[in-house]
Amino acid sequence: MSEKYGIIASFPDTPSFFHAAEKVRDAGYKNWDTYSSFPVHGMPEAQGQPRSKVPVFTFLGGITGFTVGLLMVWWMNAYDYPIIVRAQPFFSPVFPFPIMYELTILLAAFGTLGGMFITNLLPQHYNPLFNSDQFLEVSGDRLVIAIEARDAQYDVIATRQFLEEIGGTDIEEVSA
Amino acid sequence: MATTTQDSSMDATNAALLSKVQPAELNEQPLVTNNRDFNWVTDKICRIVETRTPTWWWICMAVALMTASFTGLGLLWLVSTGVGVWGLANPINWGWAIVNFVFWIGIGHAGTLISAVLCLLKQGWRTSINRAAEAMTIFAVVCAGIFPLFHVGRVWFAWWLFPIPNSNVIWPQFRSPLEWDVFAVSTYGTVSVLFWYMGMIPDLGVLRDRAVQRLNKGVYEGGGAIANKLAEGMDHFRKNFYAILAMGWRNAGNHWRNYEMAYLVLAGLSTPLVLSVHTIVSFDFALAVLPGWHTTIFPPYFVAGAIFSGFGMVLTLMLPLRALYGLHDLITQRHIDNMCKICLGTGSIVGYAYIMEFFIAWYGANPYESFAFINRAFGQYWWAYVMMFSCNVFTPQLFWFKKVRENAALVWIMSIFINVGMWFERFVITVTSLANDFLPTSWGYYSPTMVDILTFFGTFGLFSVLFLLFLRFLPLMPIAEVKFVMPGADPHAHHGDEKIDQH
Fold first, then answer.
1. Residue B167 contacts A, CB cutoff 8 Å
2. A132-147 pLDDT tens trace
3. Between B170, B194, B259, which is nearest A81 by CB?
4. Distances in whole angstroms, Cα of residue A49 to Cα of each of A24, B195, B339, B472
5. Cis, peptide link before residue A123, omega less than 30° from 0
6. Is B191 at the interface with chain A, CB within 8 A?
């Protein structure tokens, strides 16, 4: 039974693709996704997806950067090996601010990129969808909705019929 | 029932209002002209890297490599002989190296401005130029980094700048703006690479899929047997190369959701970053108690100048590319207009800063400060000041005229003037203040040596080498983002209707 990955269907233009996604969402499917070579405005809502969790990783990175910057300057210039420079204090929260600022941004940026990979479960170089020639055309202008076989509601005949009803064409069963 | 009547009465009121007001039709220039479709955009951009390397590319690459070798030889000469081969001598110990550093770092700023600030401001026109501008940023930072690195004198000790204990177990000293600069520039370089790479992931996926599609079809005809074999081999290479970089991107709605969030967050992070970088570069000067350097106007003035010079460089690069690759439908007159206007705006800020510096020098009633400025304009470096002022203040004012903005050749020449003018600005700031400070007995005159000149000249070659490689192997424009601003990508457009809903 599990030899099939799922069914893919194509849609002729962005509005019909968008509305079809809303219908799949309303039909109660869980393991499915839309595929387009550009982000479609409002698609996360149409797919019933929550807000992305990427900012959590950004925040964690930023906090780490800020703390590391602060502690590093204090430890290096005031604690481990204090050096007298002009009449300046060994430590103050003011002069290391550029360091803290830059490290906050640096680690927040790494957090963001890493967060994008983690939330998207990338890198994942193999996916059964890549076996479909039609799916590869998503990189051009094809707009595809794929419903996976592991979805509880999945049924080869009913799902195919459903995709046809909502305007899908070129329906293809993709092997796993 | 009640709501329907209310709705219809509202509609009637709206209709009555509209007929009275007679709103003008807003004719916005499309960002992609000639009604191109998605496949055209994909093909146009991908073919730049997929078709045979054009002859001009090889010629440019040869010239660029030869030019870049000047930097290599200059640095080799410097390291093997000593810093004396540069024109530095008391009292001017910051010469061309620092001028070139500030010049290149400033060039980079336009890339981040286009990719981050204009993204936050939802400027759709940034899409077709942002990738190349970001590449420009990174390569400019590479060129910039060389100068302070070798300016430390003993380059093999440059790692002392990093927070690692040196051989005497002494840490770097964080009370110096030069140390802040190390962090600012290295963060800037790193974050720019991350931003650039993340923006490229979907397009790398497109290039990967196209290589796989061609390999699946297996049709390699048209050339001789060897040429066909070579084309197939290249597609195998592309399939693997782009697959590794694309990380398995598959254009899923879920991917786009997280990607768009990450992109927005990175834009939000890069905006304060880009403002901080040139601010901290200006601290290198402003924190010294030298007349002409010790001013609070420096951070905003440096940032505006950086954006000005960066847009100059974007124009210098994009106008020839547009002509070479026939990208007129993607980089339209609207794009050029907007870039010229940004040059005009930031150029005017720079001009204002030049004049304001003079005013404050007089108003501040500090004799050293007023001397420093009069000396800048009329002293031994008057010629540099004239170059700077005429290129940076007068040149962009021509961009007020539509006729000028529409003449691509003229815009290109003016963009060169901007680059030259901004280099001279850094020269004027760095050298004049050092040459004539408080005591006339310690005055001096600085001139660069041949090694200075060739090392700087060579960085243009290095920059070109990197940019040419980028052109050949990576997508020049963000395909996904260009598609996103096309009418066909609007999910709320009516079927078969030309007009797009505004929402």
1. no
2. 999 999 998 899 999 9
3. B170
4. 12, 25, 37, 38
5. yes
6. yes
Q: Is the CB of residue B99 less than 8 Å away from at least one CB of chain A?
A: no
**The pLDDT of residue B4:** 55
Q: List the single residue in B184, B190, B254 with the smallest CB-CB distance to A33.
A: B254
Distance CA B463, CA B60 (A): 12
> Which residues does chain B have within 8 Å of residue A84's beta carbon, measured at their own beta carbons?
none
Q: How far is A154 from chain B, CA to nearest CA, in Å?
A: 19
A41 shares its domain with A20: yes
Q: Are residues A60 and A106 in the same domain?
A: yes
Residues B337-366: pLDDT tens digits? Answer: 999 999 999 999 999 999 999 999 999 899
Pairing of strands A143-148, A4-11: antiparallel
Say whether pLDDT at B373 is over 60: yes
The interface pTM score, or ipTM, of the predicted complex is: 0.94
Going by the DSSP 8-state scheme, the letter that residue B171 receives in this structure is P
Domain that holds residue A9: 4-51+128-175
Regarding whether A65 and A46 lie in a shared domain, the answer is no
Name every residue whose Cβ is closer than 8 Å to that of residue B274 and which is 6 or more positions away in sequence: B109, B112, B113, B116, B117, B188, B303
Tallying the residues shown for chain B, one arrives at 503
Note whether B490 contacts A14, CB cutoff 8 Å: yes
Minimal-distance CA residue of chain B relative to A132: B213
Work out how many domains chain A is built from and give that number: 2
Interatomic CA distance for residues B172 and B160, integer angstroms: 7
CA B71, CA B453: separation in Å to the nearest integer?
A: 9
**Burial of B205 by CB count in 10 Å (0-12 exposed, 13-18 middle, 19+ buried)?**
buried
Of A101, A97, A122, A72, which is closest to residue B269 (Cα–Cα)? Answer: A101
Check whether B118 has a pLDDT greater than 60: yes
- Enumerate the residues of chain A whose CB falls inside 8 A of the CB of residue B273: 102, 105
Amino acid B494: pLDDT: 57
Contacts of B262 (CB under 8 A, 6+ apart): A52, A54, A112, A113, A115, A116, B198
Q: Does A47 touch chain B (CB under 8 A)?
A: yes
HSE value, Cβ hemisphere, 13 Å, CA-based, for B265: 30
Q: A132 and A46 share a domain?
A: yes
Q: Same domain for A60 and A101?
A: yes
Which residue in the set A49, A99, A136 is minimally distant from B254, CB to CB?
A: A49
Burial category of B209 from C-beta neighbours within 10 Å (exposed 0-12, middle 13-18, buried 19 and up): buried
Q: Cβ separation of B251 and A35 shorter than 8 Å?
A: yes
pTM: 0.90
Q: Which pLDDT score is estimated for B502?
A: 38
CA distance B463 to chain A (A): 24
Structure confidence by residue, pLDDT tens digits, B92-105: 999 999 999 999 99
Rounded mean pLDDT of B379-396?
94
Pair B180, A98: CB distance under 8 Å: yes
> Are A115 and A145 found together in one domain?
no
Take residue B161 and report the two structure tokens written for it: 């700048």
* Chain A contact set for B163 (CB, 8 A): 72, 76
Burial class (CB in 10 A: 0-12, 13-18, 19+), B37: middle
Whether residue B36 lies within 8 A of chain A, CB to CB, comes out as no
Q: Distance between CA B199 and CA B480 in Å, rounded?
A: 9
Using an 8 Å CB-CB cutoff, list chain A residues near B124.
Answer: none
Question: Which CATH number applies to B40-483?
Answer: 1.20.1630.10
Is A131 at the interface with chain B, CB within 8 A? no
Does B209 sit within 8 Å of A77, measured CB to CB? Answer: no
Question: Which among A33, A80, A117 has CB closest to B247?
Answer: A117
Contacts of B479 in chain A (CB under 8 A): 37-38
